[in-house]
Specification:
Elements: H1 5-15, H2 19-28, H3 33-51, E1 58-65, E2 71-79, H4 82-85, H5 88-104, H6 116-132, H7 137-155, H8 170-181, E3 186-194
Antiparallel strand pairs: 1-2, 2-3
Helix pairs in contact: 1-2, 1-3, 2-3, 3-8, 5-8, 6-7
Length: 196
């Protein structure tokens, strides 16, 4: 099937994908723009996951100060090349993540950074609360598993629902950026300052 050049142009503007990729996907979906855009996004996420193993040694420190001047955030966002580090989409991602940190106050970047003693302490607190609620002892471990998973997603940046798009996590937003920019992107660290 021959694909209309206008549709290729429109799909390219919607997804930032390459011309040939847009043409192929439009041919596969018989010219359906919505299906083509979804397919491109899915394929982009798969490619992004493969790129996440690559070293990201370039990047930028991005700052955000809340309008009232009482909360400030510094984020170290890494990528593979200085070309991408200067890209406006990359810097905008950094600003969005910094704003998210200001709003959601995560304590760690990813789950494997949470110290075991923090997890154990939370398990003790939750177990005592469940026993106090009169939950059956044989069901507590299963309930506790879900509560600990929720606790970790609440305190880890990459697991938190993104404030601008709550149906996606911060990790999902980063994967989408990897797919768009074609390089591994990672949050190395952050600092959140707040006046008490």
């Amino acid at each position: 099937m021959a694909v209309d050049q206008e549709k290729i142009k429109t799909l390219r503007e919607m997804t930032s994908a390459g011309i040939l990729d847009c043409k192929r996907v439009l041919e596969e979906t018989n010219g359906d723009l919505e299906k083509a855009a979804t397919l491109l996004r899915e394929r982009g996420i798969v490619k992004a996951v493969k790129k996440m193993d690559r070293e990201a040694s370039e990047g930028a420190i991005v700052a955000y100060v809340h309008h009232n001047g009482k909360i400030g955030v510094l984020v170290q966002l890494n990528c593979e090349t200085d070309f991408v580090a200067r890209n406006e989409k990359f810097l905008e991602l950094g600003r969005s993540i910094a704003m998210h940190i200001a709003a959601a106050a995560p304590q760690y970047v990813k789950p494997d950074e949470v110290p075991a003693e923090v997890v154990e302490k939370e398990k003790e607190v939750q177990r005592a609360a469940l026993l106090g609620e009169g939950k059956p002892a044989d069901k507590i471990d299963k309930i506790l598993e879900g509560k600990i998973k929720k606790f970790i997603s609440d305190i880890c940046l990459l697991e938190q629902p993104f404030v601008k798009e709550p149906d996606k996590t911060v990790g999902d937003i980063i994967k989408l950026a990897i797919a768009q920019l074609g390089e591994n992107i990672a949050v190395s660290r952050f600092v959140r300052f707040a006046l008490k």
